[in-house]
Design brief:
Blueprint (H helix, E strand, L loop, with lengths): L2 E6 L2 H12 L7 E5 L6 H12 L13 E5 L2 H6 L8 E6 L9 H4 L1 H5 L4 E6 L13 E7 L5 E6 L1
Parallel strand pairs: 2-5, 2-6, 4-5
Antiparallel strand pairs: 1-7, 3-4, 6-7
């Protein structure tokens, strides 16, 4: 498992880091984003979406649990992916009561979808249900705008 660290000094730097990070992803990848409220998880996912080829707005799915973002095939082809990513699932489990509620939401289906990448905020609530090869990303606040981003792949 390789470890990568990055110190971001602004939301734009966080988005740019995530945008570059997206280029390494392949269909079927699952990302678990750890961090306190305001650590930059949604900001990271906004950059990730752009890096994958999504051109619209990315909002936190806190009240609906999951937001799917369709990725254009043209952009995916430009990215020269071996496996085409056609959907980014942004999953926010902050309001999840207990792990059993996952079945009602259908999260397992999203995690197993072949042409998708799933990015999960608050994954500690379902730690045991995460796939073994989940890419873990920790975001830590180290200043008003500064964040330490650590990824474990």
């Amino acid at each position: 498992m390789s470890k990568q660290e990055f110190i971001s000094k602004s939301t734009e730097e966080t988005k740019n880091f995530a945008k570059k990070f997206a280029k390494k992803l392949k269909a079927g990848d699952v990302l678990a984003l750890y961090g306190n409220l305001g650590a930059g998880k949604t900001t990271f996912i906004q950059g990730l979406a752009v890096g994958l080829g999504f051109t619209g707005k990315v909002f936190s799915p806190t009240f609906i649990f999951v937001r799917p973002y369709k990725i254009t095939t043209q952009t995916s082809e430009i990215r020269n992916q071996k496996s085409v990513i056609n959907t980014l699932y942004h999953i926010d489990l902050y309001r999840l009561g207990k792990a059993e509620d996952l079945k009602n939401i259908g999260v397992e289906e999203f995690l197993n979808e072949k042409g998708a990448v799933s990015a999960i905020e608050w994954p500690e609530k379902i730690e045991k249900a995460l796939p073994a090869n989940t890419i873990k990303i920790k975001l830590e606040t180290i200043g008003e705008e500064k964040r330490k981003i650590t990824s474990f792949e």
